[in-house]
Design brief:
Low-confidence stretches: none
Oligomer: single chain
Mean pLDDT: 86
Strand content: 25-35%
Order of helices and strands: EEEEHE
Strand order of the largest sheet: 4-1-5
Number of helices: 1
Helix content: 10-25%
Length: 59
């Protein structure tokens, strides 16, 4: 999943004390640690944009 830190935050990476997630998008594993940070609002997850097919239905 792709995430970035909320404005004004530096979020430590899982199992890396001196490495932080900032305002640039990074790819992280889909673990409980990162899901909790997203739920708390510390990380912002980038959602994929779905394109419409010919019938106009989102897939």
């Amino acid at each position: 999943m792709k995430v970035k830190a909320a404005d004004g935050l530096r979020v430590p990476k899982e199992k890396r004390v001196n490495s932080y997630i900032t305002t640039q998008l990074v790819n992280v594993p889909d673990t409980l640690y990162y899901r909790r940070l997203v739920a708390d609002g510390d990380l912002i997850m980038k959602t994929e944009n779905f394109e419409e097919n010919k019938t106009g239905v989102n897939e």
